[in-house]
Design a protein that fits this description.
Distance between the termini: 49 Å
Mean pLDDT: 97
Bound molecules: FE2/S2 (inorganic) cluster
Number of strands: 5
Helix content: 25-40%
Structural class: alpha+beta
Number of domains: 2
CATH class of the largest domain: Alpha Beta
Strand order of the largest sheet: 2-1-5-3-4
Strand content: 15-25%
Length: about 150
Amino acid sequence: MKKEILNFKVNGTPYEIEVEPQMTLNEVLREQLNLTGTKISCAEGECGACTVLVDGKPELSCSMLALAARDKDITTIEGLAKDGELHKIQKGFIEKGAIQCGFCSPGMMLMIKALLDENPNPTKEEITAYIAGNLCRCTGYVKIIDAAKAAAEA
Ligand code: FES
Ligand code: FES
């Protein structure tokens, strides 16, 4: 299939790359840009592991065509730390022990970033509802919610 040009920004860096039109955003991020912090798990829109921010809003990168990201600003987990300093959400996850296998963590942290950008001081119930689509098999969610709360209060 004929490749198409994709112009977009990822973590503030502008890219102009050729992509296959059927490629997902997840495939382009992981395989062409080598940004493997964005995970792939179910690959069918059910688990949230592949979540990235598109113009600040959470999207499932496994279920979005890369070409749909044309002219958009993408944030992946690699874009959270700035100048060598971890983002307060990353610090919260470490402080509260909210990471076990880590597979859900990038998507979970980006989801929480979108929440805190919208609502800087969410209740535990609001955090729980916001991350309901992001599955974690390890932590039981309590420490993740504590980490989000700690980030909001930081
Ligand atoms: S890998 Fe995208 S929702 Fe599960
Ligand atoms: S830490 Fe293992 S899936 Fe969440």
